[in-house]
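Private note to self, pasted from the team thread so I don't lose it. Backbone tokens:
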């Protein structure tokens, strides 16, 4: 059969992202297939199981999830739950003897990230964080051009991520404004794309962060989590990054890198499809036409190959932990109104 040799994935949490982006992408995978579903909504799970050819016995609830250990069809568990639930389900999956792919942000505290890494290490299982931009052709091409020196010496980066959060209209946004489930606001959810991009585009780790936050506390959406946040990162080579994220401006997901020879613009930088790249200098600009790939399928295949071939993923738990540490430092800098060394 076409699926023989593919590794089996259990999808945990059948929400908007899981059902609209991830599950449909398996059809483009060479090494990954869906073999189990885990959900708190039995009717929805049953319907999706039929649609995706998942056996009824391979549909789990959160309560009986641990028994997934007895299912040989499941190699990898993919956690697509609200942020604060990532740690518990990653740890339970590792204890059930499964490899784990976990959505961003990895967790809502540094301690949880450390526990997740320890649990997967103890079980001898892989842990990968689903930083899809690392598997996306435009971002990969940008990294390659930068490493080859096309932009010269990097000097600065700007990146902005915004989208209007609508908790009363959109179910997927309802937990995003609850601190206990989301861990934080726009920074945890989408500012993390800017933060992570600054790191993979420079290939460096920041040494200092500053930040300012402003949220209208009379807006019921921002009683518990932040809306607007602006943060800067200083890198060892002297690159200065300036980033914003917001839950109240319209859709934006862009980044621009400035070198002493040229600049490179990705707009969008972190969308699902339809990326764009422009490169320019004093003489003009060009727009390289790259082939848009399915970044979700590439990411799922990478996870499957790492599990199969005992390789460390390109974006392991340690990568997720770094961002959560920087996020905490950004919140601290915003709160204190002072630069924080990281
Ligand atoms: P949704 O609310 O649409 O999905 C979350 C699902 O988790 C729910 O549908 C539900 O599934 C399950 N769930 C279990 N307990 C709860 C609870 N207490 N409250 C709400 N849901 C619960 O959110 P998203 O799909 O947008 O986000 C899920 C995760 O994916 C987040 O970590 C987010 O950061 C990440 N994400 C990543 C993206 C990316 O591009 N990499 C894009 C969008 C999201 P069920 O009914 O089956 O139990």
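Design output:
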């Amino acid at each position: 059969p076409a699926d023989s040799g593919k590794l089996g994935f259990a999808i945990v949490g059948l929400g908007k992202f899981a059902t609209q982006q991830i599950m449909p992408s398996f059809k483009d995978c060479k090494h990954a297939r869906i073999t189990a579903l885990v959900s708190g909504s039995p009717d929805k799970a049953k319907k999706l199981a039929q649609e995706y050819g998942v056996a009824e016995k391979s549909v789990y609830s959160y309560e009986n999830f641990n028994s997934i250990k007895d299912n040989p069809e499941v190699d990898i568990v993919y956690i697509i739950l609200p942020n604060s639930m990532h740690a518990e389900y990653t740890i339970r999956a590792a204890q059930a003897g499964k490899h784990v792919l976990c959505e961003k942000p990895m967790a809502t505290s540094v301690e949880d990230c450390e526990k997740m890494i320890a649990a997967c290490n103890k079980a001898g299982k892989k842990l990968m964080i689903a930083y899809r931009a690392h598997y996306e052709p435009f971002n990969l091409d940008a990294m390659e051009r930068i490493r080859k020196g096309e932009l010269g010496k990097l000097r600065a980066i700007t990146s902005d991520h915004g989208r209007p959060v609508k908790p009363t209209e959109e179910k997927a946004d309802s937990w995003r404004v609850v601190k206990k489930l989301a861990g934080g606001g726009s920074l945890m959810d989408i500012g993390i794309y800017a933060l992570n991009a600054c790191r993979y585009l420079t290939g460096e780790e920041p040494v200092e962060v500053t930040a300012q936050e402003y949220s209208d506390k009379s807006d019921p959406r921002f009683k518990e989590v932040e809306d607007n946040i602006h943060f800067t990162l200083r890198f060892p080579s002297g690159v200065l990054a300036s980033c914003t994220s917001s839950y109240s401006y319209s859709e934006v997901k862009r980044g621009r890198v400035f070198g002493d020879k040229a600049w490179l613009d990705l707009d969008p930088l972190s969308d699902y499809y339809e990326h764009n790249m422009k490169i320019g200098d004093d003489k003009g600009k060009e727009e390289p036409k790259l082939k848009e790939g399915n970044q979700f399928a590439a990411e799922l295949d990478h996870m499957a190959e790492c599990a199969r071939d005992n390789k460390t993923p390109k974006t392991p738990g340690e990568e997720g932990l770094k961002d959560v540490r920087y996020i905490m430092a950004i919140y601290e800098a915003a709160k204190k109104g002072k630069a924080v060394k990281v």
